[in-house]
Amino acid sequence: MTEYIRKLLSLINQDIRSIDLEGQPIELYEPIRYILDLGGKRMRPILALLSYGLYKNDIEKIISIVTGIEVFHNFTLMHDDIMDEAPLRRGQATVHKKWNEEIGILSGDVMLVKAYERLEQVEAEKIYRVLQRFNTCAAEVCEGQQLDMNFENLEKVTEAEYLEMIRLKTAVLLGFSMELGAILADAPENHQQLLKDFGVNIGLGFQLKDDLLDVYGEQSKFGKQVGGDIISNKKTYLLITALQEASGDLEWELKKWLTKTGFVKWEKVNAITAIYNQLGIKERTEKKMDQYFYNANQALDRLGIETDRLSELKAFTYYLTHRDR
User: Which domain holds residue 292?
Assistant: First the structure.
């Protein structure tokens, strides 16, 4: 991470700490402060600032607007963790585990309100466009989450269906982040679309990287339960590809573990990981992931501009590509 990105991260965290969370009852606001204080990459507001910075230098002007994206993102995480029954978030207990599900739902609802409070600071001539794009994006994120839950009850999910699900659940918000920065900076409309395309492709690659890290990451770095997707039979790109490719004894072994109700968690994780290794699933996933990162960089090249800030954006893309958590 470059010095400039660290500066953006510091400004974002400073602004997030300024959000008014002193309301009552305390049980409603304390979980919001808790999840926001857990940190995270702040990838979405950073991307919005990098997009804006391609055209203008006064990034401080929009800090309190773009942090609204981060608040919205954490709202979705709080609710997703409840639906997924996840025990950990960024290495710490999830909100519903530390408090309870009811508090997690209500606190998440307040976070959504706080997100809108920040986005409504957009200049009057741009606010309708920004909120219209955000509302479309927010609905798509929910659609993606519903598809993800639907997949749990489907015997078969295709690669195309999975990629569409993660486009909605994860990638469109990164696309909106880039588009928001471009809109606020009065960038040409074709640049707004190219930057949105960049964000969507980064998001697709990012989620595939997340799928990989869930199996091959280190617990101390990843911040979530490694192997959690395997334990819950979550239909990730890795599992979908393995089900397509496995045959004979490997297919029998894989389906045995997927249908087994009583098992030792680490034994299941090790067994299915071994199947992935035999089928070359890690390499296939990395190839797909790299294609999306390549597409993202192609979108940047089509902007036809070359500045130090574009180099910063490319450096941040490299950081996301090679992350280990």
Answer: 3-321
Domain count, the chain: 1
User: pLDDT tens digits for 105-162?
Assistant: 999 999 999 999 999 999 999 999 999 999 999 999 999 999 999 998 898 999 999 9
- Answer for the pair 268, 253: CB distance below 8 angstroms, yes or no: no
Contacts by residues 148-153 (CB-CB < 8 Å, ≥ 24 positions apart): 149/83, 151/235, 152/233, 152/234, 152/235
Q: Can you point out the beta strands (E) in the chain?
A: 88-89, 92-93
Beta strands in 85-235 (DSSP E): 88-89, 92-93
Query: Residue 204 and residue 163: Cα distance in Å, rounded?
Result: 8
CA angle in degrees (0–180, nearest 5) for 190-196-197 = 90
pTM of the model: 0.93
User: What is the identity of the amino acid at 68?
Assistant: G
DSSP letter assigned to residue 167: I
- Residue 265: give its domain's CATH number: 1.10.600.10
Q: Residue 93 contacts by C-beta under 8 Å, 6 or more apart in sequence?
A: 87
Burial of 269 (0-12, 13-18, 19+ CB in 10 A): buried
- What tokens does 48 get? 């919005």
Sequence-distant (≥ 6) Cβ neighbours of residue 288 within 8 angstroms = 208, 237
